[in-house]
Amino acid sequence: MNLIFDTHAHYDDAAFDDDRFDLLDRLFSENVCGIVNQGTDLATSKFSIALAEQFDGMYAAVGIHPECVNENSEKELKEIKELASHKKIAAIGEIGLDYYYDKPKDLQKRIFIAQLMMAKELSLPVNIHDREAHGDMHAILQQYRPKGILHCFSGSVEMAREIVRIGMYIGMGGVVTFKNARKAVDVIREIPLDRLVLETDCPYLSPVPFRGKRNDSSMIQYTAEKIAEIRHTTAEEILILTKENAEKVYQIY
Ligand code: NI
């Protein structure tokens, strides 16, 4: 049985231009049952939908990523909202805050909050990106209380508990297999397994032993093995649980 559900991928990325369809065919015939491809702007949101139309197990998220916000974003959100009515939309994503680069924080917050409200209006979950913005993210999540996933979780155990309390899920990927992943390991030890989902963020963040190489959904196996080791269970058990969680949060039945 195919057990891998990848809750966060970017198969629209140029890294897949040479073999995208062959690769996805192979993944779905081997060990992958579901993938949610994330939009980062209008073009990649449309690409995500086109991919979702090609493969049964592929779903799309549409949204504007904090690194992609600009003065047109507010207008583009109207189109994003129209795209969100497609039958294979699983979420509004990838949305959030990224203070690593120097995009204006006010604009990022405005576009993020507008998308949180849009998701609520459409009864869709969200897929959230938070990089070096934990303080503002925490405050916004407390206020708006979205349903969905905080992807590639990099916060503290305390923040993970807060996310769980709000009712959200925590997305973990290849980073947990890295040697310096002490914080992620602590979070995995502490959070309830019914709030954990797995992801690649491919083509980036391949797990060890493929760190630095192109990532794809099949490599979630290594992430599941590492999490199983931390939680004293089997990779299969982790894959089954996280697949059920993913289907629940994305309302895929
Ligand atoms: Ni991403």
Overall 3D form: globular
Order of helices and strands: EHEHEHEHEHEHEHEHH
Q: What characterizes the major β-sheet?
A: 8 strands, parallel
Taking the alpha carbons of the first and last residues, their distance comes to 16 Å
**Structural class computed from helices and strand pairing:** alpha/beta
Instruction: State the share of residues found in helices, binned by percent.
Output: 40-55%
> What strand order characterises the main sheet?
1-2-3-4-5-6-7-8
Question: Could you give me the name of the CATH homologous superfamily?
Answer: Metal-dependent hydrolases
Contiguous low-pLDDT stretches (5 residues minimum) are: none
Q: What fold name goes in the CATH topology slot?
A: TIM Barrel
Percent strand equals: 15-25%
The count of domains is 1
Task: Describe this protein's structure.
Helices cover 43% and strands 17% of the residues. The protein is globular. It has helices at residues 20-30, 42-54, 73-83, 105-121, 134-144, 157-166, 182-190, 220-230, 235-249; strands at residues 4-9, 32-38, 58-62, 89-98, 126-131, 148-150, 169-172, 196-198. It contains nine helices and eight strands. The mean pLDDT is 97. With 253 residues, the chain is of the alpha/beta class. Nickel (II) ion binds at residues 8, 10, 38, 94, 201.
